[in-house]
Each structure stands twice: as C-alpha cells, then as structure tokens.
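Q: Structure tokens for this one, please.
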Amino acid sequence: MPSMNIDVALYGDIAKYGGGIHVAQLKVELPPEACVGDLLEKLGLAAHEKGYIFINAVLADMPGLDAARLETLHDGDHVGIFSVSHMWPYQYRDGFPMTERLAEEVRQRGAHHHSYAS
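A: Here is the predicted structure, written as tokens:
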C-alpha cells in the first residue's frame, strides 16, 4: 500500500511524543489522504494537549479549537504542533496566514483571546 511521509515538529511538553524534551523533529508515515486527526492519533497526542498547529507555515488550529482535525495532509508536508503551555511562536509576531477551515471557525466563534491562569 502506498504511503506518504510528513515532517513533524513538536514543541513544548508534547515533544515527549517524538522522543524529545522541549523540541522533537520526526518523520511520520501515514496512508494517502490522511488528515491531521490521523496524525494526532498516530502520535498518541490528545486534543487537549495540542495548542497551535501549523501546516506548511499556515495556521490550521489554535488552543481550544479542533479546526485542523479534518485538514488533509500531503506527502512532504511540514506540520508544527505546539503544546498548550507553549507560547505563541515568535516568528509569527507580525501576522500569519490561516486555513479556510480555521478562518471559518474563528468567524463563527468570534475573537479568540488567550487566558492565563496562575
């Protein structure tokens, strides 16, 4: 059966799912037409543990949402997944593109704000 390879970077507490401490870089083999939900399942990563998800530098999900679960992946895609405790990635301080699915989720829910509890 054919498969595809996805480059995955895990940041923060979830790096443990890729054998890292703070950061893990790995290749994950998935069947064709797999989606982000399939990737999360293969990694053993629960929805409540993931924060921001980027696919090829495009924001696909945010903490507390599940907008990326049905995003289809393609061979060679790079997926960056940040733990919920990991801060907003510095390189996106000036803005970011987002997937249509996430943009629709944000439109339906309204503004998305951080909440910090001590």
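A few notes: Helices lie at 36-43, 100-109. The longest strand covers residues 4-11.
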